[in-house]
Amino acid sequence: MDPYRLPHSVLPVRYGLRLEPDLARATFTGEVRIAVEVREPVSEIVLNAAELRISEASIQNAKGVSHPANVELEVSTERARLRFPGSLAPGTWELRVAFTGILNDKLRGFYRSTYKDARGVTQTLAATQFEATDARRAFPCWDEPIFKAVFSTTLAIDPALTAVSNTAVLSEEIRDGRKLIRFADTIRMSTYLVAFVVGNLEATDPVMVGRTPLRVWSVPGKRHLAAFAQQAAAFSLRFFEQYYGLPYPGDKLDLLAIPDFASGAMENLGAITFRENALLVDEKAATHGELERVADVVAHENAHMWFGDLVTMSWWNGLWLNEAFATFMEMLAVDAWKPEWQRWITFGVSRAAALAVDGLHSTRPIEYPVRAPRDADAMFDVLTYEKGASVLRMLEQHLGPEVFRDGVRQYLRRHAHGNADTGDLWTALGQAAKQSVPALMDGWIFHPGYPLITARLDRNRLVLRQERFTSLKEPPGGAATDGPARTSEATPPLRQWRMPVQLRIVAKGKPVTRRLLFTDAEQTITVPKGFEHVVVNAGGHGFYRVRYEPALRERLLRLIPDGLPAIERFNLLNDAWATTVAGLMRLPEYLDLTARFRSDPDRNVWSVLFDSFQALNRIIDPAGRPGLEALVRDRLSAAVSRLGWTPRPDESELTRQLRGDLLRAFGTTGNDPRTQARAAELYANSVKSPSRGTDGREANQREANMIDPNVVSAVIAILAHAGDRVRYTEFLERFRSAPTPQEERRYLYALAGFQDGALVEETLSRTINGEIRTQDSPFVVAALLTSVHGREQAWNFVKTHWDTLDRLFPKNGVRRMLHGIAGLATPELEQDVKQFIAMRKIHLGGKTLEQYLEQLHIAVAFRTREGPALRAYLKRAGAPAGRRLKNKQGVRHEER
Ligand SMILES: [Zn+2]
């Protein structure tokens, strides 16, 4: 018997939950009365409980027959075993359990979050985060998604505070000095979706979406940052009601910003919780990326109200049914809300991130066995979200958007208030599409990896060949395995996929689109007379890579930028970079290729260039770095001068963001001294201008000094890159007093950008001394691990303070932090990492650690293979540009 799964002999039907938190003492007391259905005679009931002290448990039936229970807690499996003196007859019983627990600081279960109020006094609130398996830390329960039940919650709180839960407030009264708030019954739902937040909270006025009042909540003083999220939420809620053809399943919708929050957001039905920077934003002061993030996360969580909350996966192996769908729907909704954001093009970046991980030997299928809670937590990754959403997009485009939507509607209607599996989704989509979906999709969901299509021209025939793409030819030897051998290895990688492939063949100036289902190892297509070029993966929705033989690639390169859509340029460049890392293309060839994109207007295309330059920066010896900086400047300078520092009035938001991205890369990876000087000047002016003008003249002056937020964000990063201690102190202060979550975040990450060793050390120490929130610290350490200037210090810090980090960080923190080890790209550091991991017996659940180690190995192998070629290339290319380095910044940097 699996010790992590509960028996189905007794099922919960309805929970009457009463909780009384004591924020000052960081404890709570509770009582839960659970109506259960006993399905066969039993003498014990097993349910989940963790970190709870159960003071009393009993069960009684409708006739008043009552049995006390003997309680035994099993710490390792997080279960409580309630033993009764006699056997319980089948039928309806009410189980009553009284308990106490702690409001922990680990951002899971029922936990404490703190913030400073306007007077600088630390205030506490209590919030919940139950997914995947932490409801059991707040109350004893059947803590598996399959055990859906109704929840009726009552909170007894300090009368000065407010409480929010999944449903509307039924009544509020003061009794015995406590405020008793009773909430309406929920729909039948899984335990991981239950939520309550208690504290001094402020809400916006509700907006009505149909019958649903929608509000945004925050700690006091931040309500003015809620408008954008409220608009995004209202739009997407309406959008989903139409798309799904089903009303929103709750009775109200509250979106709450929690100062300490482990993930981005959590889709608790009716009470969605967020980290502050994913919800609260000043629309005027935010970059495009910051606004996009709020819109994305809000839409994603709203999409879950149906996908996840109304219909829930049966077990965590099917998590993709929740997360891939929510990610896919988030794109649809945001794209409908702000078409000018071209969200599906930017989604290419997410797809690329999934392709990178799925190109590892240690990847996993989207649907993957889950046993222990740690494995469930490891499922929240780029394969579940981004690969899942990518293959859904591929399927949607293949079946047609309307057919796909109809299938989704059928699936939701059929399984509303229940649970479902991947097979159920295929059935519904298959009925809508009148074709068998499993044959097409199982290879993408149940097998790891994806194909590479190689395209070549053989006279008048286009020959396409498919094989699995991996970044390393062979699995890296000696990598530590993460946990015991997995039964899942029963699903081996495929050799051939069933692939919907879209081609655009242009002959004599006329484009023809061809859609085919590519099922064999090789497929041949006769091309028409006057053939000019072919785009494989036309439209860019396919989850595979394409490698063109040089002659075919050259024909496409001649078309850029204007003759190829942005997503296709993005894929062309991104696939070229991936094949370079994989050793299928030589680095000099790729570097030549980058010169062809100098005038590209798309920020996603540029992001491939930036990422590849940063990857090269991590593998180059310090002596070669000035040459690389010169190459970066060479590739960027035309675009930087074209866009300048100031937006034009008619410019799109995307262009504004591109300007910020270019300037940032030019001033950091390119280390351009003039850009750094200009950034300092702009910053000095913006700081000088009064932040709160009282008279009109001051306000006008402020307006004149307002720099575009995308540029502000770049300026901060540039100044940190070139900054000294004085600047560090200034930025630290700005981090502490930031008026918006976004500004706080910019200055926080800027702290990791300072290169001076003593400053790196200070930033690292701030990740464990309470100055940086534990929700953020893992990301800061990871940023330093991947930085050229901080990685060795950061790695030493991780080794020295391992126990502290492990104790302080929220449950996903160590996993997030160690993501940075891929940046430790030298053979010596790689050895050291492997030794440390083996010595400390580190496990991150699933295949996470194997993946990190493989990514590190890829970087080291790439360094060994292409390092000499890189040096030679830069020497050849950089001779004239190198002279420009003879300035203070360049020399200083070179000495490192
Ligand atoms: Zn989600």
Description:
With 896 residues, this protein is of the alpha+beta class. Helix content is 42%, strand content 22%. It contains 28 helices and 30 strands. The strands form eight sheets. An eight-stranded mixed beta sheet has the order 5-4-8-2-1-11-14-13, with no helix packed on it. Strands 16, 17, 18, 19, 20 and 21 form a six-stranded mixed beta sheet that branches. It has a four-stranded mixed beta sheet with strand order 28-25-24-30. The termini are far apart. The structure holds zinc ion (ZN). Zinc ion binds next to helix 2 and helix 3.
Brief descriptors of the model:
single chain; 896 residues; alpha+beta; 8-stranded mixed β-sheet; 6-stranded mixed β-sheet; 28 helices; 30 strands; disordered C terminus; binds zinc ion
Task: Break the fold down into its secondary structure elements and pairings.
Blueprint: E1 10-22, E2 27-38, E3 42-48, E4 52-61, E5 66-68, E6 70-74, E7 79-88, E8 91-102, E9 109-116, E10 122-129, E11 150-157, E12 162-165, E13 169-175, E14 178-183, E15 196-199, E16 202-203, E17 207-209, E18 212-218, H1 227-244, E19 253-258, E20 265-266, E21 271-275, H2 288-304, E22 312-313, H3 319-337, H4 343-358, H5 373-378, H6 382-399, H7 401-415, E23 419-420, H8 422-433, H9 437-445, E24 451-458, E25 461-468, E26 499-507, E27 510-518, E28 522-526, E29 531-536, E30 545-548, H10 550-557, H11 566-581, H12 587-594, H13 603-619, H14 625-643, H15 653-667, H16 673-688, H17 696-705, H18 709-721, H19 725-736, H20 741-751, H21 757-766, H22 777-785, H23 791-800, H24 802-808, H25 813-818, H26 827-840, H27 848-882, H28 888-894
Parallel strand pairs: 1-11, 18-19, 19-21, 22-23, 24-30
Antiparallel strand pairs: 1-2, 2-8, 3-7, 4-5, 4-8, 6-7, 9-10, 11-14, 12-15, 13-14, 16-18, 17-18, 20-21, 24-25, 25-28, 26-27, 26-29
Helix pairs in contact: 1-2, 1-3, 2-3, 3-6, 4-6, 4-11, 4-13, 6-7, 7-8, 11-12, 11-13, 13-15, 14-15, 14-27, 15-18, 16-18, 18-20, 19-20, 21-22, 22-23, 26-27
Bound molecules: zinc ion.
Zinc ion (ZN) binds at residues 267, 300, 304, 323, 326.
